């Protein structure tokens, strides 16, 4: 099989050159550590758009968008040793037959198998005595994380759907794998052509306590703004006894001036069923999006509260999917902004949102990426059992690195 030059690598090479700074630069904070820097010149992967997943032994797993043997990306494992160093092992090199440029993270099932998506398909990686074996389960892919249920079925946005506005699909584990559309968007359209129920879901879905699915769409809703395609919605899919799923729009953006718009990332829920997420655009003068909370009222309708509206790009810009810690604080990354001058528009930040007794949330920048320690984080962070935080960046790192896996120790 002939290796090829990835379009993704060509796309990011100009940015890589702009990010090359002194390797000896100090970290922005002492608690920040690069666990592994990905170097294409060493046959490594590069470009980490997806989040990480931990196994029971404390090993980290993820994907790279580029690099590897055939420049189609990789699945990797990072294993720690007693001295605190981490060793990378490439579990799979994608080629032009089994996958192309994975942009999403991975998920484990109860048996220890890994599942993920590339732009071309859904795949399973099964461990064996001879290494990890990849199997293509479904021939359509995308940029979202997969969601697993208790019997091993998989859920994610899936294809154009019935009305060419996207669908939420289920891959049913039975005799082989069978695909099933749970809901097709744009089944409710107004006279102006707006998809009232949402348009173009691109992020993964999240379980609610009642086994409902919660998610976002980039566009759609009842707002005439955002180029007359709608500004995006947060939705709920509720299973019914008939086997069908009923969709309800919880919130349609923007409901007022200064609200957020365009949703590329997933939402998360707290123990009370409140929904949290971030928008790609909108907000105040910086147009860096907002971090929001949706709360169900007594009449069943939902209210939005803006937890943070980025006042300027020095605090970060464009937040990714959020993560709760054990104390109820929200953590996340912003893919641009910050104080570093090495990246046009900033190299991104790690931030923390802390709730106060008065109902407001205090926003703190925990780490400013500098380019030499990573740049442009594009995914959620995760926590281990001890409270250590792990994440990825799309670019940056020491030398000629193209993305890093990092750790922040509280």
Describe the structure.
The termini are far apart. It contains two helices and 33 strands. It has a single domain, classed as YVTN repeat-like/Quinoprotein amine dehydrogenase (Methylamine Dehydrogenase, Chain H, 7 Propeller), CATH 2.130.10.10. 4% of the residues lie in helices and 39% in strands. Residues 1-30 have low confidence and may be disordered. By secondary structure, it is mainly beta.
Concise overview:
The protein is mainly beta and 410 residues long.
Tell me which CATH architecture applies here. 7 Propeller
Mean pLDDT: 91
Structural class: mainly beta
CATH superfamily membership: YVTN repeat-like/Quinoprotein amine dehydrogenase
* Molecular shape: globular
Determine Rg (CA atoms, Å): 21 Å
Total helices: the number is: 2
The major beta sheet can be summarized as: 5 strands, antiparallel
**How many beta strands in the DSSP annotation?**
33
Helix content: under 10%
Alpha-carbon distance between the two ends: 46 Å
CATH topology: Methylamine Dehydrogenase, Chain H
Structurally, the number of domains stands at 1
How much strand content do the residues show?
35-45%
CATH class: Mainly Beta
Low-confidence stretches: 1-30
């Amino acid at each position: 099989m002939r290796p090829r030059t990835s379009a993704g690598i060509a796309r990011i090479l100009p940015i890589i050159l702009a990010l090359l700074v002194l390797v000896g630069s100090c970290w922005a904070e002492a608690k920040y550590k690069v666990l592994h820097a990905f170097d294409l010149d060493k046959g490594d992967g590069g470009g980490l758009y997806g989040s990480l997943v931990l196994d029971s032994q404390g090993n980290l797993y993820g994907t790279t968008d580029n690099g590897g043997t055939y420049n189609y990306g990789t699945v990797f494992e990072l294993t720690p040793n007693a001295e605190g160093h981490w060793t990378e092992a490439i579990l799979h090199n994608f080629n032009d037959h089994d996958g192309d440029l994975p942009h999403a993270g991975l998920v484990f099932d109860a048996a220890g198998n890994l599942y993920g998506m590339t732009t071309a398909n859904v795949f399973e990686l099964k461990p064996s005595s001879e290494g990890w074996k990849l199997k293509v389960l479904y021939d359509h892919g995308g940029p979202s994380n997969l969601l697993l249920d208790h019997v091993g079925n998989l859920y994610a946005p899936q294809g154009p759907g019935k009305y060419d506005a996207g669908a939420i699909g289920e891959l049913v584990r039975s005799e082989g794998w069978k695909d099933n559309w749970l809901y097709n968007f744009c089944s409710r359209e107004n006279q102006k052509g707006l998809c009232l129920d949402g348009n173009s879901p691109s992020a993964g879905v999240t379980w609610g306590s009642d086994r409902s699915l919660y998610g976002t769409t980039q566009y759609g809703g009842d707002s005439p703004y955002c180029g007359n395609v709608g500004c995006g919605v947060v939705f709920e899919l509720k299973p019914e006894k008939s086997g069908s799923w009923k969709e309800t729009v919880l919130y349609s953006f923007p409901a007022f001036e200064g609200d957020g718009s365009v949703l590329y990332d997933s939402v998360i829920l707290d123990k009370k069923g409140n929904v949290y997420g971030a928008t790609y655009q909108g907000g105040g003068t910086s147009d860096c999006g907002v971090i929001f909370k949706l709360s169900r009222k007594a009449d069943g309708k939902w209210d939005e509260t803006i937890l943070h509206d980025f006042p300027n790009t020095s605090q970060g810009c464009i937040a990714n999917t959020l993560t709760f810690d054990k104390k109820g604080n929200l953590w996340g990354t912003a893919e641009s902004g910050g104080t570093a001058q090495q990246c046009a528009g900033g190299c991104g930040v790690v931030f923390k949102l802390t709730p106060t007794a008065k109902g407001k949330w205090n926003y703190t920048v925990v780490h400013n990426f500098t380019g030499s320690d990573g740049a442009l984080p594009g995914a959620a962070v995760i926590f281990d059992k001890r409270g250590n935080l792990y994440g990825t960046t799309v670019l940056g790192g020491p030398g000629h690195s193209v993305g890093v896996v990092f750790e922040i120790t509280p």
